[in-house]
Amino acid sequence: MRIRIVDAFTDRPFAGNPAGVVVLDQPEFPADEWMARVAAEVNLSETAFVHPLRDAGADYALRWFTPAVEVALCGHATLATAHVLAVDGTVRFTTRSGVLSATAGEKGWYTLDFPTAPLAPVAPDPELLDVLGATPVSVHHTGPNTDDLLLELYDEAAVRALTPDLRTLAGYEQRGVIVTARADDPDAGYDFVSRFFGAAAGVGEDPVTGSAHTALAPFWSEKLGGRTEMVGYQASARGGLVRVSLRGDRTLLTGQAVTVIDGELLAISPS
């Protein structure tokens, strides 16, 4: 059984966000425990498992596992899967977050069609702010597919400077914490910057989080005068750009991907 490691939301190796991708020949998923063990062995933010469908409602079934849990929505591993499948045109995936699609563009670009995350303002949790070492402008909860907290900080420098206590952060119930700010330089090539900490899901700092941009898109659209086309830069050590296009209750995420490892998975599921 082949397994690939793909760097997503980048056009070069060793940047963006790496994801494992396992394309299954069988018409159903193997045991959850086996997929969880493979994801733990791969030890990346997410490993995607995908198998073909005969249902006219979608072309494939797709699931994502971190090293610790299964998640309901993942952008970079979906982009990586589309890249591995060498999508030509549009492919549809049935997932825990409904039917998602990936459409191939020119020069290796793919556009994902995801549900927009609704935002609800919430009161800041003083203990969480201490853990993050942040003073936010505002705090919102995103959901239902993401279940993250989104904190706007005062400037890009504050986002880049954060050094949160990830061990303590792992005890919070939300999937993750998004921190974001407007780009300091209007000529930088992006409109806003973000970072994502997913310690509760087994991911300390995620390099580039596509699903977080389903919340960042509506948040920054309102902040930037109703703009619907924007570019976000996720300022992790690896870094990556995500083009976002807000379409009401859907958000389009566009990026590139590069395969860096193509290998054989020897521990085959018994089911």
TrEMBL record:
Keywords assigned by UniProt? Isomerase
Going by the entry's taxonomy, the superkingdom of the source organism is recorded as Bacteria
UniProt lists the family membership as follows:
Belongs to the PhzF family.
| PANTHER family for the chain | PHENAZINE BIOSYNTHESIS PROTEIN, PHENAZINE BIOSYNTHESIS-LIKE DOMAIN-CONTAINING PROTEIN
Which NCBIfam families does the record associate with it? PhzF_family
> By what name is this protein known?
PhzF family phenazine biosynthesis protein
Q: What is the lineage of its organism?
A: Bacteria, Bacillati, Actinomycetota, Actinomycetes, Micromonosporales
